Amino acid sequence: MPTLSVLVDKEFVKNVDAVLDKTRIYSSRSEFIKDAIREKTIELVEKQQKLSEFRKGAKRLSKLALKRGYKGKLPTREERAKIADSYLREIGIIK
Q1: What is the 3-state secondary structure (H, E, C) of 45-85?
Q2: Where are the domains of the chain?
Q3: pTM value?
């Protein structure tokens, strides 16, 4: 298994040690850090997936707006609401 060396402030190490001593959930700093890296990696992947889904939705919304006559100027509040409602119906969020 590869080794990862990280320099951290003494105060941070003291805080980690205090939490580990208090909770006794992890047997070592190493286990705590590995689990924290795993959790953060999962969080970042999930955020990236949500961002990707958002971008796909924005593209679909843009295509729909063009299809419905968007000519390059900002749509009115009413037009934006209609477009958004239509899109939300299309993807099944509202009926």
Answers
A1: HHHHHHHHHHHHHHHHHHHHHHHCCCCCCCCCHHHHHHHHH
A2: 10-90
A3: 0.59
